[in-house]
Amino acid sequence: MMYKIIFPFLIVFISFTSLSLNAEEGKLFDEYPPNVVAENFSLPDMQGTKHQLDEFRGKFVLVNFWAMSCNVCKSEMTTLQSAYELIDSDELAIVSIHAGNSYDGVEEVITLNKVSYTVLFDTALQLGEWGIPILPTTFIVDPDGNIRYRAVGTRVWNSPFMIDFLQSLLDSNASQAVSKPL
Question: pTM for the whole thing?
Fold first, then answer.
């Protein structure tokens, strides 16, 4: 009987530990194959205003999938907010998508974490085609709308390694824009 209680916690601990170790070992993201276009969406924010991924075309977009039932997802929001403040938001947008059928408690979590980036709601769970094996899962979409990277599991978004990685993406895009003929 005791194993029925301990086993689920052990699985979560092992999964969380292995995901965290991957990030610490320098594996911040899994690279995506070239030219995989991110599926556009039309999802509401807390006020009911619909937003689409295409609104952010021309910027890198960090798309983070999370849920209220996922405690590591909620704790990750603090580091996402910090990263958002450290990175130039003219070049990088953060869009956080709550996967779940209820808004209950979301406003409190957003307020508690002082979130100022875009938070949307996928109440119908329509974005399953994105390839989300667990929550949190995060994608980086390039300015042309292609998925470049995926991070499965929690990350420390404001760590020096992550900020350097994100900044290098932005810098490489800026240098490509300069080298393109007009």
Answer: 0.82
